[in-house]
């Protein structure tokens, strides 16, 4: 263990050359871990604030209890992109170390030593990012203080999570990093030459369609028979979105094969081939926008409840707060999706560094490579929006009927919300342009 620790410290202190983006990946990974932790603490703090307010309500099933349920629903939904971002940061934390670790295996390092060095890398960056995120969460609270719920704003102290949440969040982020790093060890731990092997991924099967259809059917039955409680609806909606993550990669692989056959330029062909090679990665890079689209659909549905049509002031306040909460959840999901896409794009560029250098040496213009990378995001982005919109409709139509489809203001709100979230994701992709230059240097 001491030998592995000494070697890890030596490699950490090694100065990276221009063609080795190790320093850049470390900064991006720490940034992603920091964003994950800060947003996680803000969301948990918000839920705790609603729960504290409800604690003073003598009726646990009254409006205060309903607010807690809504806050819990938003918290559950936002855990999905946060876990995705944490996993992306962990994969980036060990990016491009596969070849180095394989070389160490060839030089005589044991599997245990290689594993320990990988875990230390991931844990160090996750811990640094998590601690920065804890500090950043106190600043992030300031951004939501102007918002009003239940007729009044939250105080700063109300939005600070309980003390035990902070070490728990740091531990959880570090654990996610270690699990993702452990999964990456399969490339080098089995054989030192594992990273040199190129394999064709097994095609994804259409049977991934079945779970989401079953979930939609269960929701329709529960709603139409009057058996749907708010808790059941929350579970079904959260489960339905989880099923979207099963469906998404299969749809991505189908779309990728179609685009490959119909590509009319080099950039589109390169992007499509990358989608076919790794549909799961392509879906993960835009999975956050699928959630944002899903939330935008729910927020648009809430907009149908006009405060002016409420029977009393309490109901009008509830309608306004539901709309505010929906947009806040959408904004958080959009920002997390943008950071996640930027981190994943940077990781993919680093992982495909050899391919980028080969294309550059073959005379491929940098603008073509940038265009291919942008389409590598924009094509999955369009697919994710389409799949998530269809999934949202499966849940909203049984509950609300077709009335919201004819409401122009509701549809406009949905389109603008999705467009804003997509713009954030594309900005995240453009932000990874520097990584291409670093790889080619």
TrEMBL record:
Listed transmembrane segments: 24-50, 70-94, 126-145, 165-185, 206-224, 230-260, 281-305, 325-344, 379-404, 410-431
Cross-referenced InterPro entries: ABC3_permease_C (IPR003838)
Superkingdom of origin: Bacteria
GO cellular component, one term: plasma membrane
Topology class, membrane: Multi-pass membrane protein
Domain ABC3 transporter permease C-terminal: 89-189
Entry's localization field: Cell membrane
Keyword Nucleotide-binding (UniProt): no
Protein name: ABC3 transporter permease C-terminal domain-containing protein
